[in-house]
Design goal:
The structure holds two protein chains of two kinds. The two termini of chain A are about 45 Å apart. Chain A is built from 17 helices and two strands. The chains are: A mainly alpha, B alpha+beta.
């Protein structure tokens, strides 16, 4: 090895030549080949990889769609219909992109659920969690602006309602809304900037995902037991063990995706978006895309404009401080007999919000939305902080291998030790 | 241990077979995914639907030429004079860079229909108006790199490799022609 060259372990002369000068092969081998990964992952740990695949599918289909799409209020709707009818395989690419957004949120919601259930946000993974919340916020902004582009009735009125949310803020509200519109209403300048940002943000997401993964590879992955691997006996190399396990999940993911695209491409969409935008007529029942319904329900549950907007934004921003709201040292809900039912109820409550967000804001739906909103915040602000003091967690296993390989109950002295470690 | 235990009767390890099958499936999958993306870059249905252009020949007097759009390209339609036809037919074809008889390039003697794109690098030659430069042979002249075309649109001098292309066309009546 000459001075200044990386000490490559690769034998293939071409690979070696590159690797000595730019050790990308060594890096890939270290981060995705031999990377030590807890040996007890369940299928919930597929969803990070699935989200990564979805992001790549969205970027690929999006780039090809943008070659045919026209960001102009008088042409946008027709250009999307042209993609559906005239562009070769345009229907396929658009349906993949459209349903890909839904798949992205399904995958990411499960990924977040996994993180909450198994306490993946706790030290030392707080920043990893925070980066994840940043990715989620960017995803929401990207999805919202993407939904505006076809310039149907739901696009237009969704854009109008969502941008008007910012008018709730005192003093600066009006200024922010005009900044988003570039005019005095949602119009051509709005469509143009939304298209520009819709193209930009996925690459920003890609950058934050890189940081998310980089942070993950410092702390290592959490696992269903929520205890750290104690040594090589508790881990497996990422390849081939988890590349194979992720591939199994990927096949199932593609089956679900294909069913949506080929058999029910408009099931998750709203038919009104196939009516061209009309600034003079609001559709009678306007709802956002399904993945925004829980926050929409929170917005409508509050009988005050500013209050509703603050709680809606707060419902996601509160995730940022979750690592400090939940001070219990035990990560996995498997060992938290009280937190576990409260959290599962919270997850069901989230689905209730999703359901009620799609219903008209009247009668008993309003009451249900209010109770669900109250529990949503109570879980974070009251229940978790209290449980950290009151709950008595179950004894943690001594190591990841121990419950698998047997070895009976823990020795008396070991019980306290995992507690502090976790 | 594994290598010996899993060797097939003919000596080829089972793992080699599995790797080949996996690789083949991956290649087919990548191809199947790439196909619609590449197809989407090809001309769309509505683009191809614009592939015909109808031209009314009645207003074009002898010696006059018009340019029409066909598939986004200019098409020259020239009502040739008897002198121009005679000039085009007087040339011995074996002396031409791209030999072709004038008869093979027209359906009706007076109507010369050509794609108005120089076969060198795609410029539009001048010569549609009688006041334009028409080159040394009275047809068209490409100002970009100096190709001279005669009154049959054949290359006579300059860097162009081929005669001006004759598009597919058919006379739908005595005074109407459909190009494409």
């Amino acid at each position: 090895m000459s001075i200044g060259l990386h000490n490559s372990e690769f034998k293939n002369p071409v690979v070696r030549w590159v690797d000595q000068r730019l050790p990308v092969f060594t890096m890939m081998q270290k981060e995705y080949g031999t990377f030590p990964t807890p040996k007890n992952f369940n299928y919930f740990w597929n969803f990070g990889a699935l989200a990564m695949v979805t992001l790549m599918i969205m970027i690929a289909t999006g780039i090809f769609l943008s070659m045919h799409y026209v960001a102009n209020t008088s042409l946008a709707f027709d250009s999307v219909e042209r993609i559906m009818r005239d562009v070769n395989a345009g229907w396929l690419i658009r349906y993949v992109h459209m349903n890909g957004a839904s798949m992205f949120f399904i995958v990411v919601y499960i990924h977040i659920f996994r993180g909450m259930y198994y306490g993946s946000y706790k030290a030392p993974r707080e920043l990893l969690w925070i980066l994840g919340v940043v990715i989620f916020l960017l995803m929401m902004a990207t999805a919202f602006m993407g939904y505006v582009l076809p310039w149907g009735q739901m696009s237009f009125w969704g854009a109008t309602v969502i941008t008007n949310l910012f008018s709730a803020f005192p003093v600066v509200g009006e200024f922010i809304v005009q900044l988003l519109w570039g005019g005095l209403s949602v119009d051509n300048p709005t469509l143009n900037r939304f298209f520009s940002l819709h193209y930009l943000l996925p690459f920003v997401i890609f950058g934050v995902v890189f940081l998310h993964v980089a942070a993950l590879h410092i702390t290592g992955s959490n696992n269903p037991l929520g205890i750290e691997p104690k040594g090589p006996q508790d881990t497996l190399p990422f390849h081939p063990y988890y590349t194979a396990k992720d591939s199994v999940g990927l096949v199932v993911y593609f089956i679900v995706f294909a069913v949506l695209v080929f058999f029910a491409p408009n099931y998750l969409g709203h038919p009104d978006n196939y009516i061209p935008a009309n600034p003079l007529v609001t559709p009678p029942h306007i709802v956002p895309e399904w993945y925004f319904l829980p926050y929409y329900a929170i917005l409508r549950a509050v009988p005050d404009k500013l209050g509703g907007v603050l709680l809606m934004f707060g419902s996601i921003l509160i995730w940022f401080v979750l690592p400090w709201l939940d001070r219990s040292p035990v990560r996995s809900m498997r060992f938290r007999p009280l937190a576990r039912p409260f959290f599962l109820l919270w997850a069901v409550n989230f689905l209730v919000l999703l359901w009620v967000g799609g219903k008209p804001a009247e009668g008993h739906y309003v009451l249900i939305a209010r109770i669900a909103t109250a529990y949503y915040f109570a879980y974070f602000l009251v229940i978790l902080p209290l449980l950290a003091r009151l709950e008595r967690p179950l004894p943690l296993p001594e190591s990841i291998s121990r419950p698998v390989l047997g070895g009976g109950p823990l020795p008396a002295g070991a019980a306290a030790k995992p507690m502090e470690k976790a | 241990m594994a290598n010996i235990a899993h060797a097939a009767p003919d000596g080829a390890p089972r793992r080699d077979f599995l790797k080949l099958v996996t690789g083949a499936f991956a290649a087919v999958g990548v191809g199947a995914i790439a196909w619609p993306f590449i197809a989407s870059l090809q001309p769309a249905k509505d683009t191809l639907a614009l592939a015909n252009t109808d031209v009314d020949l009645a207003p074009i007097t002898e010696g006059q030429a018009i340019t029409v759009m066909w598939r986004g390209k200019p098409v020259f339609v020239r009502n040739r004079t008897a002198k121009e036809i005679q000039e085009a037919r007087a040339v011995p074809t074996n002396s031409l860079p791209d030999p072709a008889t004038d008869q093979s390039r027209v359906q009706k003697d007076q109507w010369l229909i050509l794609v108005g794109i120089c076969t060198h690098l795609g410029c539009v030659p001048t010569g549609q108006r009688t006041t334009d430069a028409r080159g040394d042979y009275g047809g068209w002249f490409c100002p970009c790199h100096g190709s001279h075309y005669d009154t049959s649109g054949r290359i006579r001098k300059g860097p162009a490799p081929r005669n001006l292309d004759v598009p597919q066309y058919a006379f739908t009546s005595d005074t109407k022609v459909r190009i494409g």
